[in-house]
Amino acid sequence: MIRVQREDFDLGAELRALSDGDHGIGGVASFVGLVRDMAAGENIGAMTLEHYPGMTEKMLGRIEAEALERWPLNASLIIHRYGRLEPGDQIVLVATASPHREAALESCHFLIDWLKTKAPFWKLEDTPDGGQWVDARDSDDEAAARWRKQADGS
Amino acid sequence: MIRVQREDFDLGAELRALSDGDHGIGGVASFVGLVRDMAAGENIGAMTLEHYPGMTEKMLGRIEAEALERWPLNASLIIHRYGRLEPGDQIVLVATASPHREAALESCHFLIDWLKTKAPFWKLEDTPDGGQWVDARDSDDEAAARWRKQADGS
Amino acid sequence: MKLLYFAWLKTKTGVSEETVSPPAEVETVADLLTWLKQRGPAFEDALADVEALRVAVNQEYAEMTDPVTAGDEVALFPPVTGG
Amino acid sequence: MKLLYFAWLKTKTGVSEETVSPPAEVETVADLLTWLKQRGPAFEDALADVEALRVAVNQEYAEMTDPVTAGDEVALFPPVTGG
């Protein structure tokens, strides 16, 4: 399931709902991204997440479909927020449920890595010098590329 | 933090507490193990988790210390239950919080893989033929060995 | 053709959304960018470094050589930084 | 010496905890297992396959060649299956 929303989410309730009633699930893996008050050495107060409505949902849906194809998952969930966020706020939740531990852990890792390079979101950080658009990191491309290599079997 | 307990735990509250007030945390990764009603093709009703009090805490503490040494973590948590558990019940929670996504995800994966081969717990499954001690799986040893190789740099 | 600008593409051009009618010789993403750059210094500056740009045509990532046509929705933005 | 048995080691031997005084020639984990096997068919059966056994001395995983002494807590159990 995909959700793109301005509102916060209840992590415990979301994770519970993911496995609720399905006793074939052996493990639930999750990752929650939070707003840090220190990015690349600069103190930031808050940030605003801009996104591309329509394409965002399309890309997240495709990323999720890819995970469901690669791993035996009983359920998956991606929630990504947009709008203004304060330090400590939840930005994103990725969660996967599977009969098997490895499938849950790997697919969760895959989802957040791919989302970081494919989902059209942009962070505008409040800094002492004003709003700064965050630069994409090469390390994110490398993290996503790792999964591409695995898919090629190389 | 390490907890070995008979009681259930509140997943949402535990994860919230892990990052609460620390705005240097950029990501929280977690894995929750659940009782499946189908293990190795056999329907099971419930299970009883036996453990070795004292050694369990010692091993979990050592596994956690190892993770804290290998990755830049702001917080970590391992909760493992023992006693009688029903299908759908939570067995174990592993969670890690870090400034960096990869560190949180990898250390969480590491903790559950190592715990599976080092922490002295044994599962007794209720089956139609009576109580059956679960056999250890080679795949668990392989999963743990992967992290050993990485540590050796080989 | 509908154009969308995000993040610093929006800030630099001062445009978030517009409808344009490029001439017939604009057949690819690359042609479109070349045409857009001629619209003034703000566009020339914003689109100067093609490597720093990502383009989506009808909400799909597109290459410089991909075609664009009159009914398309074309979005220009920097590499994504969500998650 | 305090002995602890877990999982099917406990089921097969019928013992969960006991205090024993092995003879002086029992110096290693292997010696201890050999001595325990002589205590009757239940022990002989439970300890038959050394590969299927794990041993902890004072709550640390131990090898067959590791020493055991009178004051030790020695635990016998199968490979762990928690998590």
From TrEMBL, chains A, B:
Signal peptide: none annotated. It is an enzyme of class 2 (transferase). It comes from the Bacteria. One of its GO terms (biological process) is Mo-molybdopterin cofactor biosynthetic process. The keyword Plastid does not apply. It catalyses: 2 [molybdopterin-synthase sulfur-carrier protein]-C-terminal-Gly-aminoethanethioate + cyclic pyranopterin phosphate + H2O = molybdopterin + 2 [molybdopterin-synthase sulfur-carrier protein]-C-terminal Gly-Gly + 2 H(+). Pathway: Cofactor biosynthesis; molybdopterin biosynthesis. GO terms for molecular function: molybdopterin synthase activity. Its EC number is 2.8.1.12. Keywords: Molybdenum cofactor biosynthesis. Heterotetramer of 2 MoaD subunits and 2 MoaE subunits. Also stable as homodimer. The enzyme changes between these two forms during catalysis. Belongs to the MoaE family. Converts molybdopterin precursor Z into molybdopterin. This requires the incorporation of two sulfur atoms into precursor Z to generate a dithiolene group. The sulfur is provided by MoaD. This is Molybdopterin synthase catalytic subunit. It comes from Denitrobaculum tricleocarpae. The lineage of its organism: Bacteria, Pseudomonadati, Pseudomonadota, Alphaproteobacteria, Rhodospirillales.
UniProtKB/TrEMBL annotation, chains C, D:
GO terms for cellular component: molybdopterin adenylyltransferase complex. GO terms for molecular function: nucleotide binding. Coiled coil: none annotated. It holds the Pfam family ThiS. Keywords: Nucleotide-binding. InterPro entries: Beta-grasp_dom_sf, MoaD_arc-typ, MOCS2A, Mopterin_synth/thiamin_S_b, ThiS/MoaD-like. SUPFAM superfamilies: MoaD/ThiS (SSF54285). Belongs to the MoaD family. PANTHER family: MOLYBDOPTERIN SYNTHASE SULFUR CARRIER SUBUNIT (PTHR33359:SF1). This is Molybdopterin synthase sulfur carrier subunit.
